[in-house]
Amino acid sequence: MEDEKKHSAVSDVGAWAMNVISSVGIIMANKQLMSHSGYGFSFATTLTGFHFTVTALVGLISKATGYSASKHVPLWELFWFSIVANMSITGMNLSLMLNSVGFYQISKLSMIPVVCVMEWILHNKHYSREVKISVVVVVIGVGVCTVTDVKVNAKGFVCACVAVLCTSLQQISIGSLQKKYAIGSFELLSKTAPIQALSLVLLGPFVDYYLSGMFIGSYKLSLGATLFILLSCSLAVFCNVSQYLCIGRFSAVSFQVLGHMKTVCVLTLGWLLFDSELTLKNIMGMIIAVVGMIIYSWAVEAEKQANAKVAAHTKNSLTEEEIKLLKEGVEKAPVKDMELGESK
After folding, report:
1. DSSP per residue, 64-115
2. Could you read off the pLDDT tens digit of each residue along the chain, which spans 344 residues?
3. Among 71, 60, 79, residue whose Cα is nearest residue 190
4. Is the CA virtual torsion 280, 286, 289, 293 positive or negative?
5. How far is CA 91 from CA 44, 47, 166, 207, 279, in A?
6. What are phi and psi of 275, to 5 degrees?
7. Which of 43, 71, 161, 201 could tie 49 with a disulfide, CB 3.0–4.6 Å?
8. Hey, how many other C-beta atoms are within 10 angstroms of the C-beta on 292?
9. Which conformational region is residue 101 in: left (phi greater than 0), alpha (psi within -120 to 50 degrees), or beta?
């Protein structure tokens, strides 16, 4: 039992580490690929389509070689999930284009309370006071270190709302679909990735044309850009797998809260690798955010232990009347032959 707990803890840390490292890596790779000082590949939606294409290919190879099994999930649920996920991606790109970076960061921060409210509405999930306080601390910390100018317009506000709602619903659905159909994280990703890949590769160039005013066919592909696209796609496989894995093992709220560790890492690496400015305000915000994450981890663990104690107490606190009824039931019940299934 103790070994199982240790193995589970190691798996949990491994899943988070994979997500943080791959997410930070893909942000750094995309920054070099898409920035004007890099390769100027400004086709974010189409690039996401490439990501899911490679992920779908990995899933097909895994299934063909017998490394992953296949369980039935209704096609309409896969389509519905893929539509929500694609609306999340498109909404985020449009929100970033139409709003200021400050408002875009605020909309991303709002996902934590939105996920909490949606889980309460959809799954009647409640959170302890300590968890709520830690969420507020994380939001304040990340807000302090990332939010600068805040400008918004009507179109941008609508796109931000769609992006936040769809992203929150998508992340909740990852966990609920895994539980509903007893399906693994990689298996679920293998089923949804081909649908997302096909739709994003077909529609992505038109969305990107609206966003950047450039059509992907006019882009001159260099060797360096090709290598960074391949690197981005490779990291995306690990990023997608670890996202489904983390949400399946924990929850959408935990993924959002602890996921802001990526924001802290990106700011630090941006300062180290790209000479980005790191002010006292940024540093203070990062410290507050990390403190909030530590409090959140402690609060969730304390909540788990409290629930385990309640469950154990309930299990062991049978009344005398219940024990008497159980004894009477055992005495009156006919003895069955377990092999033949006949009463003796």
Report:
1. HTTSS------HHHHHHHHHHHHHHHHHHHHHHHHS-HHHHHHHHHTHHHHH
2. 555 555 566 677 787 788 888 888 887 888 888 888 788 888 988 999 999 999 999 989 888 887 777 778 899 999 999 999 999 888 888 887 777 766 777 777 788 888 888 888 888 888 888 888 888 888 888 777 767 666 767 888 888 889 889 988 998 888 888 888 888 888 888 899 999 999 999 999 998 898 888 888 888 889 999 999 999 999 999 988 888 888 777 777 777 776 777 777 777 777 776 666 677 877 888 888 888 888 877 877 777 777 667 666 655 555 555 555 555 555 555 544 434 444 44
3. 60
4. negative
5. 12, 15, 8, 10, 30
6. 55, 30
7. 201
8. 22
9. alpha
Instruction: Please state, in angstroms and rounded to a whole number, the distance separating the CA atoms of residues 146 and 142.
Output: 6
Q: Is residue 269 a contact partner of residue 29, using CB atoms and an 8 Å limit? A: no
* Contact (CB, 8 A) for 304 and 269: no
- Taking the alpha carbons of 140, 141, 143, 147 in that order, is the dihedral positive or negative? positive
**Token code pair at residue 54:** 């490679």
C-alpha–C-alpha distance, residues 278 and 290, integer Å: 16
pTM for this predicted structure = 0.73
3-state helix, strand, coil in the chain (%, to 5): 80, 0, 20
